[in-house]
Amino acid sequence: MKITRPITALTLAALVAACASPAPAPDQAPVESTLASAERPIPELRELQWIEGQPTIEDLGSTETIRATRVGALKVIHMNTPANQVVVARLLTAGGQADLSASIAGIERLSLSVAAGGGTASTPKDAFNAQLDAIGASIGSFAAADYSGISMRSVVEHFEPTWELFTQAVLEPAFPDEEVELRRARQIAEIESVRDSPDALVGEMVSDLYFAGHPYANRQVGTVESVSALTTAELQAWQRSLLQPDRMLLVVVGNIDHDQLIKRVAASFGRLAPTGAEAPAVPAVVHSERALRIEAQEIPTNYIMGYFGAPALDHADYPAMLLATRYLRDRLFEEVRTKRNLTYAVSAGMATRKANFGYLYVTATDPAATLPVMFDEVARLQNERLDPLALEKIRNVFLTGHYMNLQTNASQAGMLADHELLGGGWQEVDTFLDAINAVTPADIQRVAQTYINTYQFAAVGEPSELPAEIFGVSPQATDEVDADQVLGEESDAPAAP
């Protein structure tokens, strides 16, 4: 697909003059507070700063369906989808968990949740929701490891009123105390629910073990203690701190006119003054030996998950590693479940983060019989060249799933955001599939040898059935924890209604 390079930098006076929606005014909140401290690194609440005059517009390139434009300091990626009448917009700020510390973990998710659902200075919550309900639109929030933000979804016919509420939620959220307490109770309930789910608990445990000392150790959902301690003023200050256009990205997928979209952006987010801020760096994760962490529970089966290093989306090995883990997943299912009936649930896969990881997962009543079969399949992948027909089969299955996953505008917006913020840029949305098609059996063997090692395992179950030697871990690299160490102390906060 041909890429059109940047061509001009234009002023926007004529376009903005025709814009029907004026820029939302900054709210009347206090200019600053004394929130920031070494223990609670929360930026001071500041007024929104706007540029003088109209923002410049710069064409950053295009394909047949995608156009990238810089409006002021904000980058906008627009994918036109004439096949349907849904419009999805996601306004993201890069950083995510790398911005958090243990004492304030959970602040970003909670602040965005309240901003998106608590009404605005111009439109109280009930009226806000009534307007959305009347047109079948929605506004929500998301908080991932590397970015977070607020999103909207509507049909093309109702894009304008939804966009107006969307900009209000971002620029002038109300933060009513009752909404803060409602959302806080829900978030704490979600944290505590992990205690009742060995599956979820083993995932939290292996993440804590693998990312110990790393920025990803501070989860977006937070802990009971950290979420309980957040004040409304802190949440408001944090949400405001995310509005730095240098770190932001707007992705819009929908059948709307590009020039009209840019007009609206120029009258709202495009006027935010640049701050020069950059997203924090995310260091690589390095482990020199295998490790194991166990939580003892009297349950019928043992839940086991292990992480290992993996290339990030912007790495040349990513496509090969993606197919390698898909092939390994199928082999584990065949050997562990189908042939030997050792489990009902076994898998392998890979995440999508700046500091990326792959994983092995199994539930097993007899780990001593199950884990050797899994390790044998890993060794086979590392030591034997994959049959070309087997690779072609797994490639075709992947491509079918890839296209099926992109059937919604929301998933296409997510894909564009991932390639722009975690990969080599939005232009690689198309070339990524070329890279998948170019993977060879030798590539599969090489990445398996390079990355699938030095496992960090967590297990929930009977310790006598989980000796360190079956994981290939030394006893000195094994420890036991309880759920309170993973989730924080239990809260006396009321349950969410």
Please provide a written account of the structure.
- The chain has helices at residues 13-17, 107-117, 125-135, 159-171, 177-193, 198-210, 224-229, 232-241, 258-266, 318-339, 367-383, 388-405, 409-421, 428-437, 441-451, 483-487; strands at residues 9-10, 57-62, 66-71, 74-79, 86-94, 138-143, 147-155, 248-253, 291-296, 302-309, 346-350, 357-364, 456-461, 478-480.
- The protein has 497 residues and is of the alpha+beta class.
- The chain has two domains: 57-269, 2-Layer Sandwich (Cytochrome Bc1 Complex, Chain A, domain 1), CATH 3.30.830.10; 291-487, Cytochrome Bc1 Complex, Chain A, domain 1 (2-Layer Sandwich).
- Strands 1-2-3-4-8-5-7-6 form an eight-stranded mixed β-sheet, with helices on both faces.
- Strand 2 and strand 3 form a beta hairpin.
- Helix 2 (107-117) crosses helix 5 and helix 11 crosses helix 15 (441-451).
- The longest helix is centred in the middle third of the chain and has 22 residues, at 318-339.
- The protein is globular and about 65 Å long.
For the structure shown, list the relevant keywords.
497 residues; Peptidase_M16_C; MPP/UQCRC_Complex; metal ion binding; 2 domains; single chain; Cytochrome Bc1 Complex, Chain A, domain 1; signal; Metalloenz_LuxS/M16; 38% helix; alpha+beta; eight-stranded mixed β-sheet; disordered N terminus; globular; disordered C terminus; 14 strands
